[in-house]
Amino acid sequence: xxxxxxxxxxxxxxxxxxxxxxxxxxxxxxxxxxxxxxxxxxxxxxxxxxxxxxxxxxxxxxxxxxxxxxxxx
Length: 73
Known about the structure:
The chain is mainly α. The chain has helices at residues 2-21, 27-34, 38-47, 63-72; strands at residues 24-25, 61-62. The protein has one domain: Arc Repressor Mutant, subunit A (Orthogonal Bundle), CATH 1.10.10.
């Protein structure tokens, strides 16, 4: 029974991660999400350690990219 519960939880976790990866955030949202200042986030963008999209004229970040940056910090 515990095996089935773990299997089901892993499935739900995968669904949630897939849904979050495509969400875009602005620099203020990333600042709140990461508990870091906007200037720290901008420095990471300038260094190339944090992936960003500038196609709309403002800095946009995908949740998955921010999570990877925070993990690899």
